[in-house]
């Protein structure tokens, strides 16, 4: 049997977020489902003005079935609070909904999703964004940014810049996991919070 390369056939038309979340549990749009515990779908209010897009769920997220609840998620929570952005008012999701990893003993080590997997999973993200209709999308890391803004987009060159699309505006910054790995974690964290404060300020302007 040939490997499917898109989740499109699994995305129900006219569905609300609850129906999308339910339908995603049966997705076989790429091969990542075979080694993951479960789909980790987005979470947050359908009325959110800000959607935060990460790369993929990590080990903790895969086990719990919720986005951004591991170490990087806790750092994101702290940074959002310092930037006066309330997590409860933000919709959090990932470009890829299954955890890609390799097993090393009893540990499951994160592997970056390939372009084929990002494209295959894109119908879910497209459906989420079409329902929520946010004012602003914040992409965390290169994988998320390329999923939303195209494969040529480089976070290293355009970090913190506002990109206007027809449906919403987009800002890209680093993934919080990179802050945890940074040689100078304090400086990386301050820069990350500064980016989030810029997002909050821009949202304020969009609301006027």
From TrEMBL:
<protein>
    <recommendedName>
        <fullName>Type-4 uracil-DNA glycosylase</fullName>
    </recommendedName>
</protein>
<dbReference type="InterPro" id="IPR005122">
    <property type="entry name" value="Uracil-DNA_glycosylase-like"/>
</dbReference>
<keyword id="KW-0408">Iron</keyword>
<dbReference type="GO" id="GO:0046872">
    <property type="term" value="F:metal ion binding"/>
</dbReference>
<keyword id="KW-0378">Hydrolase</keyword>
<keyword id="KW-0004">4Fe-4S</keyword>
<dbReference type="GO" id="GO:0051539">
    <property type="term" value="F:4 iron, 4 sulfur cluster binding"/>
</dbReference>
<feature type="domain" description="Uracil-DNA glycosylase-like">
    <location>
        <begin position="41"/>
        <end position="197"/>
    </location>
</feature>
<keyword id="KW-0234">DNA repair</keyword>
<dbReference type="InterPro" id="IPR005273">
    <property type="entry name" value="Ura-DNA_glyco_family4"/>
</dbReference>
<comment type="similarity">
    <text>Belongs to the uracil-DNA glycosylase (UDG) superfamily. Type 4 (UDGa) family.</text>
</comment>
<dbReference type="GO" id="GO:0097506">
    <property type="term" value="F:deaminated base DNA N-glycosylase activity"/>
</dbReference>
<keyword id="KW-0479">Metal-binding</keyword>
<keyword id="KW-0411">Iron-sulfur</keyword>
<dbReference type="GO" id="GO:0006281">
    <property type="term" value="P:DNA repair"/>
</dbReference>
<keyword id="KW-0227">DNA damage</keyword>
<dbReference type="InterPro" id="IPR051536">
    <property type="entry name" value="UDG_Type-4/5"/>
</dbReference>
<dbReference type="InterPro" id="IPR036895">
    <property type="entry name" value="Uracil-DNA_glycosylase-like_sf"/>
</dbReference>
<dbReference type="Pfam" id="PF03167">
    <property type="entry name" value="UDG"/>
</dbReference>
């Amino acid at each position: 049997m040939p490997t499917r390369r898109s989740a499109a056939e699994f995305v129900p038309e006219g569905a609300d977020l609850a129906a999308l979340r339910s339908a995603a549990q049966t997705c076989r749009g790429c091969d990542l489902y075979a080694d993951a515990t479960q789909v980790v779908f987005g979470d947050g209010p359908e009325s959110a003005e800000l959607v935060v897009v990460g790369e993929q769920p990590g080990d903790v997220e895969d086990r719990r079935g919720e986005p951004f609840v591991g170490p990087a998620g806790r750092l994101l929570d702290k940074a959002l609070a310092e930037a006066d952005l309330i997590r409860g008012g933000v919709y959090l999701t990932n470009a890829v909904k299954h955890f890609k990893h390799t097993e090393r003993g009893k540990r499951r080590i994160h592997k970056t999703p390939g372009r084929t997997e990002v494209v295959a999973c894109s119908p879910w993200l497209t459906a989420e964004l079409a329902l929520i209709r946010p004012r602003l999308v914040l992409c965390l890391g290169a994988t998320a940014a390329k999923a939303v803004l195209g494969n040529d987009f480089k976070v290293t060159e355009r970090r913190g810049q506002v990109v206007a699309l027809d449906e919403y505006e987009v800002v890209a910054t680093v993934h919080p996991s990179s802050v945890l790995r940074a040689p100078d974690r304090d400086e990386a964290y301050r820069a990350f919070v500064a980016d989030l404060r810029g997002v909050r300020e821009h949202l304020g302007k969009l609301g006027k």
